[in-house]
Amino acid sequence: MDKKIKTYRDLDIWKAGIELVKDIYRLTDKFPRQEMYGIVSQMRRSAISIPSNVAEGFKRYHNKEHGRFLYVTLGSCAELETQITIAKELKYIQEDKEITLLEKLDRIGRMITNLLKKL
Fold this sequence. Notes:
Layout: H1 12-28, H2 39-59, H3 63-89, H4 95-118
Helix pairs in contact: 1-2, 1-4, 2-3, 3-4
């Protein structure tokens, strides 16, 4: 049985985005201190942008504007994907963690793409 979507908090995309933000915060807590204003800040901002833009787009109520925010969200996913790869190349994270995070990003990206098709 499908439940009615009343708020952005009901969206699986938003929920997955929140989980990803928590993953990124936990992960970047272990990065070198000198990266606090570098890659740590960038990764956190990119991650936060994902559920934030899903929420903002949902509140716009017009499909064209909603879609625009979903495209911004896809851009944030690509940014974070790049930053995760850089973190792995710098040996701040292990390959298995990179793979797990990239799989989560891929899932979110597919969910966004499917929602865009429905708008």
